[in-house]
Design goal:
Elements lengths: L29 H15 L2 H20 L12 H62 L4 H40 L17 H8 L1
Amino acid sequence: MAEKRPSLAGGLDTPRELRSKFWPTLASDPDAFGRFAERFARYMGTANFLLYMTIFVIVWILFNVVGLVGFKWDPYPFILLNLFFSTQASYAAPLILLAQNRQDDRDRVTIEQDRARDERNLADTEYLTREVAALRISLREVATRDFVRSELRSVLEELLASQETEDDEAADRSADRRESSRDSKGAPRTQSIPRVRPVRSPAATSGSGS
């Protein structure tokens, strides 16, 4: 049977990692161990941990001093208990430092994201400021509502004045036309009185002849 070749995780373009022949590598998940370290450090900073540790120390000392059931595995001065506490401290310190490092990494990422967000907000604010300034400059050249109203009011006044002037001229022309029509009809302005000659009677004429 043909031997099965191990499949490459990254493909042909992924370089293979150098492996030590003398020291075996332990396959562990850094994120999982880091989460465990954070949970452990968080639990050590609680009141329950202190309470349980105090109860454990009291029971340990009572069992080894009084000697219940006739068994003393750690007589005074409790060397085994001191060794236990030393081992616990030696492991607790790196776990706490690991948890703090992970928290620092998260804080650093959060700070970088906040800085990037602030930079984007600053850029947006500057852009909006420039746009508002450009709009203000452009609005100075555009007719405003008050300007349009004043121009319309002035145009209306000019139209009313010209209409009144035309009405006056039309009234004058109609008056002149009426006067000229009266003159053409023969309405005497100054009539001359004709002379009246006296009429002589026939008797006066005969008397003057005799």
